[in-house]
Design a protein that fits this description.
Number of helices: 12
Distance between the termini: 48 Å
Strand content: under 5%
Order of helices and strands: HHHHHHHHHHHH
Number of strands: 0
Shape: elongated
Radius of gyration: 26 Å
Amino acid sequence: MTDTTLPSPRNNLNPFAGLMSGTVGPVVVVILAILAIWYIAAVALNAPFQNSIYERAKRTDVTFAELVSDTFSQEKPVLPAPHQVFGEISKKTIGTKLTSKRSLFFHAGITLSPTLLGFFIGTTLGILLAIGIVHSRVLEKSLMPWVISSQTIPILAIAPMIILVLNAINITGLLPKALISTYLSFFPITVGMVKGLRSPEVIHMDLMRTYSATRVQAFWKLRLPYAVPYLFTSAKIGIAASLVGAIVGELPLGATGGLGSLLLVNSYYSQTVQMWSALLMAAFLAGSLVALIGILEKVALKRMGMSR
């Protein structure tokens, strides 16, 4: 008898279809959409200045293609085109020595130091505050409103104050920038850990009481394991906030190194291409740090038997 079974549609699929229908496909679509919008915006924002150049040169025969090409090659555009920014990044990374002050990696390394130190201090402080808030009703009523209120103060207002106070007592260099990073990073850690430490179910807490477990035992064997996923989730937010704090901390210092100082200097001279390259470098650094925490999260949860 002839087999009339139709071949499985799955076997006829393009080998790239599964990949494109997964996580890679949507990401590629979003990136292409961003680039398209970016190019369109670059033409729209740079066209008025380019038209003024044509008027001064008394040119009236400019085609649309020439206008678009010229807006993509301005030295100081209002909005640089993507290829201008990526070309500048390539020149300041691949085409420049790591130890050179013109290298984006050099400035990223300077910004990374206060970011990591501030994140470490902020994480430690946030965990300690969360433990105190969860285990003490008095601390919850007294500390939590201040923790929340602290985030209503704009960082651009408080950063110069922190630096001036620390300079008055001869504390300069890395620590002032790290403390500004701490200010931004401790809040998500505190809130996340409070939520995590309170996440065990009531039946599990009752079971610990049945075993006559002390608060310390209940903390180590129940509350803390429950809080670990919350800690990593809040740490991803905290590390990005810490990087923002480090960059902001470099602005009032007038530092000669760091992504913040690079943005400040380029803004003085309207070097928009260089500004955007520094911004994208900061975004890449933040993404790398968040990805690193994601890897640590997978390893830690797998070791604890809580892998997702």
